[in-house]
Amino acid sequence: MSETGPGTTLGVGMVGHAFMGAAHSQAWRVAPRFFDLPLTPRMVVVAGRRAEATRAAAERLGWDGWETDWRKLLVRDDVQLVDVCTPGDTHAEIAIAALEAGKHVLCEKPLANTVAEAEQMAAAARRAAEHGVLAMVGFTYRRVPAVALARQLVAEGRIGAVRQVRAQYLQDWLADPSSPLSWRLDKQKAGSGALGDIGAHAVDLAQFITGERLTGVSALLETFVHERPVAAEGGSALHGVGGQGTGPVTVDDAAVFLARLDGGGIATFEATRMAWGRKNAIRLEINGTAGSIAFDFEDMNVLHLYEASDEGRTAGFRRIYVTEPDHPYVGAWWPAGHGLGYEHGFVHQAVDLVRALADGTQPEPSFDDGLQVQRVLDAVERSAAAGSTWTAIEDDAS
Ligand code: SOE
Fold first, then answer.
1. 272: closest CA among 379, 173, 161?
2. What span, in angstroms and rounded, lies between the C-alpha atoms of 118 and 112?
3. DSSP state of 263
4. Coil, strand or helix at 391
5. d(CA 369, CA 302)
6. Given this model, what pLDDT does residue 235 score?
7. Which of 107, 111, 288, 348 has CA 20 to 30 A from 366's CA?
8. ipTM score of the complex?
9. 137-152 as b/e, with b when 16 or more CB fall inside 10 Å?
10. Using an 8 Å Cβ cutoff, are 375 and 394 in contact?
C-alpha cells in the first residue's frame, strides 16, 4: 500500500509524450486541483526517444525532468508510478520491467499487441499485486460521466436483462487516401488497425456498461487503402503531413463483427477510421427487456434512456443531460449544467487510480481485464482470417 496522509505525493514517470502523453499530462496536472486526493500526483519525469523533442515536451506539458531512456525512471526513488503512453509494441517490455522494479503502472490501451504479450503482462501484474504494486489499463471512456451513469442504470435493472447491444466507434481521419502513414497503420507497432485502436474501446465499453462478457464472435476485417504517403515532419498525431514516397498499410481500416454475450444477449460491433463525417462517434445502444439506453460520444454529456414502464402517450427516450452534481464525477467540476469534454475522462482515470493506490485496492480495468479484451481482438482476427467463422473467446484471464 502507498504511504498516505496530508502532503504525501505520488511521483509519476511517463513514457511517451505524443497525443496520449499530452492527455495524461493534463490529467496528472489537473486531477489534484479539482478532486480531493489522498496522494498528490507529482509530474517527476517524462521519457522519450529523441532528446530535443522530449526536452521540449517536458517543458510544454509541465514535467520536472526528462530522459531519453525509460529504464532510468525505474531506478528513481521519487517515481512510484510509471505511465506507459507509447505505441503497443513497447507496452509489455516497459510495463513488466516497471512492475518488477516495484512501480505501479498505468498502461494505455489496448494492453498489448498480442495475447501472448498480454498474458505475460497480466501475470506480472498478478505477481506484483502480491507486494502491493498495482497495474491498470487505460480504457479511459469508462470515466465519461454519461457512460458511468449508463453502467449504474443497467446494474440497477432500469432496462431489465440485456438482449441486444449495438456498439460502434467511428472516426474519419483515414478516410482520405492521401492521409499519411503513422505508427497506428503499422502492424509491428500497433498490433492491428481500427480493431485494436478504437474497436478495443467499443468492446470494453459494451462489457463495462452491461457487466457482461463476450463469449464468441464472427468477424470481417477490411483494408481499403493499401498504400499511403510516408509522413513528413509536422502535423498533429492523427493528421500528419505527407512526405516523399509511399509505404504499405499493414493493418485493417475497418472491423465489423457479431458477438454473443454471456448473459444470453447478442451484439454487433463496428470500428472504422474511414467513416467520413464521423469524428469520434462512440455509439452504444443497449436494448433490454424493460427499456433501452443510448450514448454517442459526439454528444458526450447526454445519455438517452427509454423505460418501457412509462405511460404510453408520453413514453419516449428521455434525454438526460449528465451535468448535475449527483452524476458520476461531475460534482467536482463546474456549476451544474456546464458540461465536460474529451480530456475529463483522463482526469477521472487519474483520480480513480490515485484513490485505488492509496487504498491498496486493485484499480479497474486491471491487466486481467485488458487481457480479456485482447482475447476478443484476437478472436476477431482469427474469425476474419477464417472467412468469418464463429470463434469462441477463451475466458481464463484470472
Ligand atoms: C485514434 O484513433 C485515437 O487517438 C485512439 O488511439 C484513442 O484511444 C482515442 O481516444 C481517440 O482516437
1. 173
2. 5
3. T
4. strand
5. 27
6. 79
7. 288
8. 0.96
9. bbbbbbbbbbbbbbbe
10. yes
Model confidence at 51: pLDDT above 70: yes
Please name the helix (run of DSSP H) or strand (run of DSSP E) that holds residue 347, with its range, or none: helix 342-359
Q: What does the alpha-carbon distance between residue 52 and residue 68 come to, in Å, rounded to a whole number? A: 10
Do both 204 and 133 map to the same domain?
no
pLDDT the model gives residue 396: 65
256: number of Cβ within 10 Å: 21
Q: What is the pLDDT of residue 7?
A: 54
Question: Does residue 72 sit within a domain?
Answer: yes
Centroid of ligand 1 to alpha carbon of 274 (angstroms): 14
pLDDT tens track for 336-366: 999 999 999 999 999 999 999 999 999 999 9
Same-domain pairing of 71 and 181? no
Probe ligand 1: pick from 198, 201, 282, max atoms within 8 Å of CB? 198
Domain boundary among 94, 121, 140: 140
Ligand 1 near 19 CB (within 6 A): yes
Domain containing 38 — which CATH number?
Answer: 3.40.50.720
**Residue found under cell 480479456:** 372
β-strands 214-222, 318-321: how paired?
A: unpaired
Q: Which residue has the cell 497506428?
A: 184
> pLDDT tens for residues 1-31?
444 444 599 999 999 999 999 999 999 999 9
